[in-house]
Amino acid sequence: MKEKIFGKKRVIAITLICIIMVLTIGVPTAIYFSDSNDSETVQTLSKLGSRGEEVRQIQVKLKELGYYNATVDGVYGSRTRDAVIAFQRSKGLTADGIAGSKTLSALGIGVSQTISQLGSRGEQVRQIQTKLKSLGFYNAAVDGIYGARTRDAVIAFQKSKGLTADGIAGPKTLSALGIGGDGASSNNSAYNKSDVNLLAKVISAEARGESYTGQVAVGAVILNRVAHASFPDTISGVIYQPGAFTCVYDSNWNEPVAASATRAAQDCMNGQDPTGGAIYYYNPAKTTNAWMKSRPITITIGSHIFCK
Q1: CATH no. for residue 97?
Q2: CA 261, CA 219: separation in Å to the nearest integer?
Q3: Which mean pLDDT values do the consecutive 10-residue runs of the chain (308 residues) have?
């Protein structure tokens, strides 16, 4: 009888200890694994909480396809995840909300083309490390892996050049490092197909009805902003900067992209700039902004005045 009572007490005691441990330590946090083969353990997975240029590219593409209606901010939040899931379902992919290699491929975003950032690897990363090492910013092995040391070296370099110190080697940073050649070839090498398509889309929407030169001019302003210290470091960042281009929010944005706009985008990236380095433009018949009208004018093309 004593043994039975002792046995019951032991069970109760063990149960109480378990309860106390759970209340004290807490329930272990669930670790999320994707059950798909859409794996990129080598590269940075764009998933909830991630941020950077790759995320911005994903948001831009999803927005173009009608899956994402929020702000393009480069932050992989719940709205981005939900948009990815909806896109994955439409393509018959595993709907896990993680933009792995299959999802990126379906979106038309080449993993090898993404801007160098934490987790990336390849020849471009090796070039960045080599250049940073020669300049005294990077003291680790040149292994082609964009790890924390490479990111920190990029941040230090960006600070020394007055660039946005985000640790992402975008077009401005690559240009400052001297990677990608000089002049037009350098500009073109810094962009990928998604950039061309997005630039063509905004040219088509902003310069509808303008001459071909007028279309090239609008694209040139966007690229001039990318290269300017006062604006975001990427095409998508410039285009989706709040209040920068109203066409992003009106009906023109969903109109088919004109073939001439695609050619104009490519010509811009090859170095054509009929504006003389303008970073602003406006239609005097539609603009009442006194500050804009006070800017130094570089040229007038069609209905647009271009200025600095």
Answers
A1: 1.10.101.10
A2: 9
A3: 54 56 36 32 51 76 86 84 90 85 74 53 77 87 84 90 81 75 39 84 92 94 87 86 84 86 88 89 90 92 94
